[in-house]
Amino acid sequence: MSVAHQIIQEVHKSGCELWPLQGKLKILEGERLNPHLINKVRAHKADILELFKYDEQVKQLGMIVAISGELYTWTVSPFSTAYMERTDNEWTAWRESYQRGTKTATHVKIIAEKDNFQNVLGRTAKYINFIEEKRGI
After folding, report:
1. Which tens digit of pLDDT belongs to each residue from 55-80?
2. Rounded Cα gap, residues 137 and 128, in angstroms
3. Which long-range contacts (C-beta less than 8 Å, at least 24 apart) are formed by 129-136?
4. Which domain of life does the UniProt lineage start with (predicted)?
């Protein structure tokens, strides 16, 4: 988990919300935050804004934000889900397929592996477009 994500979690645990607003960070209920946490937000502002930018980009593809800046999902079908996940600052995208009644994936397809966010996002977008074209969407 990135430092920026840890800071976002700390802010949420304090009962506050962080929102990107025209290249700035808006802290809702900011008076609840202790000065040390406010300084951490300021010190990592660019990284936090980058996470929110990632979230917006994947939402445009129709993906769901599972963990901001870390994990995104897209339902391919009732038995198949695609994921994008950051691990050690590298991104991987894959699809898992299940059979009715099973709890573990019966098939895994790697879409993109161990690359930067933009490259994995591009490969995932191509995959989503391919599936939607197949469905006639």
Report:
1. 999 999 999 999 888 999 999 999 99
2. 11
3. 131/76
4. Bacteria
Rg (C-alpha) for the chain, rounded Å, is 17
Per-residue pLDDT tens for 109-125?
999 999 999 999 999 99
Give the residue carrying structure tokens 């989503």. Answer: 128
**Sequence-distant contacts of 42-51: CB under 8 A, at least 24 apart:** 44/3, 44/4, 44/7, 47/2, 47/3, 47/4, 48/4, 48/7, 48/8, 48/18, 49/20, 49/23, 49/25, 50/4, 51/2, 51/4, 51/5, 51/8
Question: What tokens were used for 39?
Answer: 């300084």
Phi, psi angles (nearest 5°) of residue 87: -135, 120
Neighbours of 41 (CB within 10 A): 20
DSSP alpha helix (H) spans, 20-116: 35-43, 45-60
Residues forming CATH 2.30.31 domain(s) in the chain: 62-135
Q: What is the pLDDT of residue 11?
A: 92
Q: What percent of the chain has pLDDT over 90?
A: 70
Q: Which CATH class is domain 62-135?
A: mainly beta
Residues 33 and 13: their CA atoms lie apart, in Å, by: 10
